[in-house]
Amino acid sequence: MSCSLLEFCRLQELKTVRDYLFQSQKTEPAEEKSQTGALPGLDRPENELSWETSEWESAWDSGDNKEEEVEEETTGQSGPWLQDCVVAMSPCSDLLVVAREQKAVFLSAKWRSNDSGREEMTLAVSWTGTLMTWKTTEDKEKCVSSSVCIPLASQKRSSTGRPDWTCVVVGFTSGYVRFYTEVPCQSKNGVLLKCRTYEIPRHPGVTEQHEELSILYPAALVTIDGFSLFQSLRACRNQVARAAAAGSDVIQPPPLAYKKWGLQDMDTIVDHSSVGIMTLCVFDQMKNASILGGFNASVKGSPPAMSQYVTVGGGPYTGFYYAVEGSSQPLLSHVALAVASKLTSALFNAASGWLGWNKNKNEEEAVQKQKPKVEPATPLGIRFGLPDSRRHGESICLSPCNTLAGVTDDFGRVSLLDLARGISIRMWKGYRDAQLGWLQVPEERGDREFSPSASLPRRHALFLVIYAPRRGILEVWAMQQGPRVGAFTVGKHCRLLYAGYRLMGVNSVTSQGWQLHTQQVCLLDPITGALRTVNIPFHLALSDKKSERAKDMHLLKRLTTILRSREVEPDILESEAKSVLLDIKHPAIKKQLLSPTQQDSFEGIEEELSRVGPTLQRYAQLTSRPSVSFAQDSPYSPLPAQAFLSQMECTEDGELRVIRGSETEWNRLGNFMFWGCLCGNSPLHKVCDTLQEAGISPQQLLSLLLSVWLQREKEMLQKPGETVRNLHTLLIALSNMKGAVEESWDTQSISPWWQQVRHTCIQSHNSAAALLAAFVAHRAAKASITSRADSKVKKPHSEWEAVSLELEQWVVFVRQLEDVLVLQTLLLVPPPQGSGGGAAAQCSIKTLMEGGTGGIADSVSKWVFRHNLSPERLKEILQKREDKEAEDKLEQKAGEEGKEQEEKKLLVAVCQRFPHSLSPDLLFAHCCWEYVVQWNKDPEESRYLSWAVEHLKLVSSPHIQLGISTMMWSTFIVKRLSAAAFLMEKVNYTQTHTFLPEGRCFYDVGMGDKAATYFLGCCVQLLQILMEADSAVEEVPAPELSVEEAWFGAEGPASIAELALEQRGVHYPLVQHHCLLASLLHSAMTFSLKVKPLSLFDSKGKNAFFRDLTTIQLMPSGDMDPGLISLRQEFLLRVLTAWVQAIDDSSGTSPPPLPSSGPKADWWPSMCLELGSLLQVNPDILRRHLVCELYNQGLDPRAEEVMLEVEDKDVLGSQLLVLTGQRLSYSLLHSQSQTQAAMELLARLPPTLCTWLKAMDPGELRCPLVPLPQTSRLVGRLIEILPENHAQYSLALHLLEAVEALTTED
């Protein structure tokens, strides 16, 4: 399939058009010809408006009063008539405008039957006449210089992409532009017109270009926003229709938004292109800043958006202008506002001639005195240019992708510009008066559907069309450095029509589901009147020019297939070999054919099978579990003849095509055709020959083969060696069929045949079968590429290995499938009995690529949750990956089961295959998020939240820790914490005896009391992690996240770690404020204390709660209210008392160790001291209270440890003196077993001491019965800490004597 010129339309009455445009201007016709009246000509003298325009024209031309005539066409006295005309065609091919001087002919599309009875499209004259212009001093100023036909999209929902109507925009050499349809509707000044319409971005990240109409003046450029123009044209057309229906003559043309640039630093500007909005990369931004601003130039943080304009002409040859967005505000069209009444008169004077109305001429004369207001142009300096002093540019043609442009000059050159880099990248010479156009060809859908990125927009190939009228030839060149793919001999008087735009008024929403029927390039032949378009196949952008070599390679492949067939008769083999040898032209390929047969590529497949054998075996064990299915749904059931024939269809060309129905029917057909061959029960080559003779396309046969191979994975894994060998033979046989691998396939490009194999395996969840199919296809493709490469270098079996893009694709693809197989094997391991988490996830290359950069870690984190793997256990396994010695120790641990060891080995293997995607920080981060998500589903499972926090602690990067803590807080924690705080505040008002009756109050926030206690404890830990991470982020650089090389290009949601790194920093005092509240709530819930938690804070503190942690709030500062401090102190003292009561244990010299969590945890006293310092409570009061409470509880050893930290020993001594007196009073006066010695001792005591002991109340002691040695030790401590001048020092001495005497008596 090659380039072709296809005639799609023909012009009628060409002679009429020519005669009308070139008739003598002295003899004006009495009446203009009008065939349909669709576009009435405003040709009568009384309909033409006039005023003095010198001031207006000088303002538009930036003060240059000299008229500069810019012609779009090259004219000559003896040239053909069409070259002297301005020709414009709608991209929808339904309207053609031919204009010369002040006259114009409009031709509209019509359908008619030709001589054979077939319908064909023609362009017939629909209107002729003189275009309305304003009278100037010279006739030449009235001439038409440019014209474009802009189809306007329909706004109706039922529209399928056809235009609603077409607006003809005509520019005159006087500087004016008229917009035509049924009646004229708007007016502006101009010389050369170009239009840009909306194009759907083909790739993510490409900036959408807005619609625009640009008008070039000799020294100014005006750009009109397409949306504003579209709405104005629709509004004017609707106003005219309503005014005509109502008989009114008042309309108000709406204003237009436009920008006017004064292009500087260029001598002459002949043509231009508005490229659109672009953004420089950071490097280019820094380069430009340093060039323009010098060494000390400052660079903005983000590159600004700029509109790029490219001009051609002289001095320099090509100029590049960049207008920064926002540097010039859009102007309203005061011109249109100033002449609204004038346009009204012109409009309805025209309408009066059309509809039979008349207008008072006195009103028109009054209007003519008005003059429009013109805004000055914004100066725009040239950024850079391409200098060429001897040559001057004549025209520029912008490519559809806005990255390239073709430029013609007066030396017969055609230059190709790279607009992003601002350089000329290619040049053609010998093309005088050349006319340019572009063709953008999409990829064929048949090739696209086998691509792994089939869901993305199709690829497009770009071609440049050059028409050389001097030589009468039309050429098509592949971009950017491609060959000439087509050349046609056409007439020397043709016109190449290239619009460069489509429908106006289309956007990303309204274009959904539209089929835009537009022609890109048309060639108009004025001799025959034929309109022809260029048809270029997509593959010409990829094909090799040397078709003879491609044909010889096909013959070589055909003979190789015959030689490998063991069922061919010797006579047939000899005749076939002779005919092939005679047909082959290249000696190198003949030499390759006569050399010994190439070694079978199956040897490499066996090596790969042995390498992945253990993983395949484990995968087969995990997938061999029994399953239930219905017989009628099974693809393995026999295929009836009726069902077989119902899936076959014979085309008009006599070929047999398989109709693809349901997936089950397709699998049954594939099973019928190929399963016998794969099992070795059917002759492979006979089956392939039969299928080839039947005429079924190799692509459909390949699809059937792969479907049965992937579907019957379990049976295939029972005998992998035999089935893989048969698959290899079948695949080679199918590849050698005609139409399988293209003869013109270049090994440096992607083959659609092998791409089909990859596309099928990419989507399959049967990882083992897909990997084995990839092994086979990789070896087959490699053998084919090596054969082609050997023929090119004329060395069969060369020692050099062929390198191609196809082989690189296979290497990456096989690596991906091996990774997927190991990961799928891990995910198939069944979890322990009774664990949650749902069924095992199915993965494939497609699901992993669509899962984003965190898809792999997310799958493994779900597996960790299903298997109930604790954070510490996961940490050990991950350390085992890095430490081989630790691996050996873990394997030799006593009591570990073989199954658990198998799971650990699989997890380590997966982590080794994904060193970046499953780095410890990423895996811990995803596990943390998985557990907190599961906890949010069932808040009663406090262990989930606790393990989520433990996983978060194991993340080593403070940046990731900070981000995940912030996301956990805002997503899951803050609402429940605020509900708990307000509920506890509320319950304290109503409850007088108990805090939470029957443990049910916290069900209002979704959990019970026990779960709420764990929740509050986790909140404290989370906020502490958040504060620590916030303190450490400044010291440690942010981690650089990456993925494995084979998994680049993953598209989908960002990983948790990436989202964490994007989080904003937190306000440390606000986090600390919330941590303080969470600690108070946790203390109250743990020890069942009655408190109003929010009442412990002032108004500023209350208002700061539950705000966004990234914001700066007004925090409490300065000295707090004494009453508030008293309430805080009372609560902390109650917490310490409750903790001492909770740890009550048997007295002894060495107290037992305390647990790390719960009410008996050893960190409660230190936490209370920290809270005291934050709540402005004196910590020494808390320490003294803790010492007294410990002695009160009889925990003397613990009390002695805390006593060392007390600062005010005098107050503590007085408190402990009372407690000692209570103990001695209980022993002497209140004990049940009073001895004679005790009574005698009491009698010997000093009266003052005796009276003091009798006043003591031992009932305040929670543990009054304390061994006397402990009390004696306590009195000794009292003597040490009390100064001798203390008022109670003598009392302490008496107590010491009494205790020693009592101890001696015992």
From TrEMBL:
Report the sequence similarity comment from the record. Answer: Belongs to the Rab3-GAP regulatory subunit family.
- Keyword terms of this UniProt record: Cytoplasm, GTPase activation
Q: Which domain of life is it from?
A: Eukaryota
Annotated localization: Cytoplasm
* Protein biosynthesis keyword on record: no
Q: What is this protein called?
A: RAB3 GTPase activating protein subunit 2 (non-catalytic)
Q: Which residues form the Rab3GAP regulatory subunit C-terminal domain?
A: 700-1283
Residue span of region Disordered? 25-78
One of the entry's Gene Ontology molecular-function terms is: GTPase activator activity
Question: Per UniProt, what is one Pfam family of this protein?
Answer: RAB3GAP2_C
- Domain Rab3-GAP regulatory subunit N-terminal residues, every copy: 81-497
Q: Which organism is it from?
A: Dicentrarchus labrax (European seabass)
Record's GO cellular component terms: cytoplasm
Decide whether keyword Cytoplasm is in the record.
Answer: yes
